[in-house]
What does this fold into?
Amino acid sequence: MVADKLNSDQSYGWPYIEQAPKDDPAYAPGLIRVPEWDSFPWLRAAFSTRLGGATSVYGLPGEQNLGWTAEDDPAIVAGNRRRFVAAAAHTAAPTELVTLLQIHGALTHIIPSRPETPLSTPDGRAVLRGDGAMTQATGLLLGVQTADCVPVLLADTRTRAVAAFHAGWRGTLARIVEHGVARMAQEFGSRPEDLVAAIGPAIRVCCFAVGPEVRAQFEGHFAYAAELFSESGPQIHLDLHAANRRQLLDAGVRSEAVSVIAACSACARVGEGTDARRKFFSHRAEQGRTGRMLSVIGVAAD
It folds into this structure.
């Protein structure tokens, strides 16, 4: 039984992730887990929403901005992050969060168990530039920030390697997720058939209008590009959820091992009528002045 179904549109035919009910031990405000991953007690993973924090600068009180944005108080962001990381990691003990200075590309970092240099600043800000990270280290969380772009989390159920990717349209065009699966095989001996994947909340085809130059670039790189685009009057819409799912399948990940949160970051709401509020931060819907969500994955400490 679930309390909050994120999307009732079953047109894709993909597994849909639902929020745990409040009487479930996995429940935490502003946090979405992957129920298909409950059978892996060593795995820690979660996607955030904009609910359940202390931010108030984006229109309503009680929002969970997890990005170091210009508008929000850094102390509030730090507190939001501490609460979210503790809930995602299932522990009150301090857990290192490794994030990236995202550049909308395909650069991916291997995070070692004993890094030679710090992976973040003393106040928790990212130092590594890139859009993907993977590791076999335990006791830390890899995180990517989004406010419309697609977060993709991967876990190897055999080797216990994990990865997190930030896939905007440019990263998707650069095949960051498809190349990421190959990199996991190279670095950790991962086999695609052992991987499980979760695609998080992002702007959906309903709200993601792009120009003809974007469609032309995709058509130049993907034989199946026509399946990713649709038209609504004069507008061209791109389905980034479908694009990244296709990359996972082309890389050898089993279809049944891919879970998708189908909610649209630009238009999903919670509540009804005048009480309805945005469930996610959206750079496009809010004209650039908005917070950030975090998608995290890691392996529990031994």
